[in-house]
Amino acid sequence: MAGDIVNSDGSLNTANWDAMYAAAGTDGWIDYTRGKAATDAGGVKLYERPHFTIQKGGTQNAGQIGSIYEHGSATGSDGGAYSTSQTDVVTFGATSGSGVVSLQTSGYTNNTGQLKPQPQWQRGFQVEHANFSSYRSSGVLPAGNVKPMFVASSNDISSENGTSRLIGTADGTIFGVGSNTAANKVSVKLAPGKLPVAGAMTNKAEFLFVPVWDKATRKGQVAVIITAGTAEGVPWTDTNLAYRWWEEWREAYPGLPNQGNTSFLKVLGYVDIPGMSAPTSVAVNTGMHPWQMLGADARAIGYANSPVKDHYLELRDGGVNGGRIARGGLLAVGSKSEKKVVYFDLKPLFAWVYDSYYGANHTRGERANLGLGDSQWPQTMALSGVTLPVVKTVAFADQVAAIKFTGTRPAPQTPGEPFNWVVTNSAAGQGTVHVMGVGGCLPGTANNKSCAAGDISARSTVAGLPYVSSIATMLGMKRTGNVDLNSGFWFVGRPGRDVGFVRLNSSGAGGVIGLQYKTSIEQCADPVGLADIDNYSNQSNAQLLMCYNDKKVATYRTDTLFHNGSWTAWAQSTSVQGTSGVPVEYYGSYPTSGKPVHALTANVP
């Protein structure tokens, strides 16, 4: 129960450590991490656009018969670039299935626009990812509810990447699900007694960082997990050069930037978080934009530069493709009850990877000794000597609800200064955004930048938010002057059923609440989280809300539909039809066996 986890003042009850562990994946955990559910009415019941079903007899793809759409008509002609988005939803307490629900949350094809959440036609309208059957048969996952805790992906930093999503479970298993065309099978198990509570992946899927509660030592730690991506269906053990797939590397190279179809996971070690017993949030950024891995012909350079042993001079400093590998970064771990954020410097980790592939000791990164053993490449931190130094610990007066970094900008656009946003909640239930400058700590591809405590400083605050339960990456909204992951984020406040976004000033001098509305009991009585629906090919400008006690997910749209990245409104689109002054539309919901808590989406090519 929640009372076992927190004291009357909302602080963590560390005297009852066993109850804290037992509460993972339960209502008590959500009450602690997201606040109590709203008890009042209020909210606006928003306009819901009519739904239509693709019928037999047309010229459309036969597999889509039965799909629901709201825009256009199923004529079979194309209505902008084809795309769909897949969203993986983590739920608590599922009474059937795995607890992870895979849905289509947008679709543009055959002159239709689809935004109501629904099963994917590409998978025969199944809501459980196809990888689960093999995970169960191999013993990676048990039958039934796997008790998922979070979903992580590199597209939470850079919307151009992140085809695969990684799910963390309460028993410490990390496993991969992905899109319909990027679904490599991969898994790893954390050491016993480590409860994973969140996950953050670096910009180009090089590493996954998972804050854990260590039961034996009662310490907060970060699991450092190195990753590699390969072509679809190609295991990391493959000794042949793989086929051309999204310009991916032709072999598995852990720690190098990749296209996000993760096929290799290895725990390098666990790093203690000084002064923190119970981390609850995490964020990471390297300053690396995905486009920095593109060559002059707009192709990713992995395929052309495989195998590394034949091309390492081209990607090292001074080479023809020098400066395309991340050289450092910043990891931020927050604790709600302990009211602090601890920042780690990732430069030693990325310097080790770079030197192993492209430096004087580049042969350390060769595949001859690639494997999961401690001494095999990549070696564990205990053997390699790599450390993650603490740069700074920042204490706050109020509880830390969430943390997130700005995104990244491609050259030649002026990069702008990067920031870290820390959202806190006061005892009175008021949310505040703390804008933290993190200048020299996100080096991108610069190898001469170092990260020091003085590089992390409080710049400004944005007050006046409601109680904030969670925040989510904003993939872009044209109607607000194209606010995106560099200049704002979505927030959800469970106690008041509040949804909105904050737009931050590019100079770090504060910001404003750009939109705020309250969900209605009929449409989403208990919002606890949000995922911005992927805008990679077609901009839906829609969001998926996790409605916890409703046991459903629901879609809302906040701007005109745009297609093919042109910012030209699709001919079959229409402006948002607001209700009672709220410029938002409701697109319906999809029921889930468990109570949804976290989700991420990706474009499905």
**Coarse structural class:** mainly beta
The fourth-level CATH homologous superfamily is YVTN repeat-like/Quinoprotein amine dehydrogenase
CATH class: Mainly Beta
The rounded Rg comes to 23 Å
Name the shape in a single word.
globular
Mean pLDDT: 89
User: Which CATH architecture?
Assistant: 7 Propeller
| Most strands sheet | 5 strands, antiparallel
Strand order of the largest sheet: 3-6-5-4-32
Oligomer: single chain
Helix content: under 10%
Number of helices: 8
Question: Overview of this structure, please?
Answer:
By secondary structure, this protein is mostly beta strands. The chain has one domain: YVTN repeat-like/Quinoprotein amine dehydrogenase (Methylamine Dehydrogenase, Chain H), CATH 2.130.10. It is 8% helix and 33% strand. The chain contains eight helices and 32 strands. It has helices at residues 2-5, 17-22, 27-34, 131-138, 312-315, 347-358, 381-384, 521-524, and strands at residues 52-53, 68-69, 71-72, 83-92, 100-109, 112-114, 148-152, 164-169, 173-178, 187-189, 194-196, 200-201, 207-214, 219-229, 262-272, 281-285, 330-335, 340-345, 390-395, 399-405, 419-425, 431-437, 457-465, 470-473, 488-493, 498-504, 511-518, 527-532, 542-547, 552-557, 585-591, 595-604. The chain has a five-stranded antiparallel β-sheet, with no helix packed on it. Strands 11, 12, 13, 14 and 15 form a five-stranded antiparallel β-sheet that branches. A hairpin with a 6-residue loop joins strand 26 and strand 27 (511-518). The longest helix has 12 residues, at 347-358. It is globular and about 65 Å long. The chain starts with a helix and ends with a strand. 59% of the residues are buried. The mean pLDDT is 89.
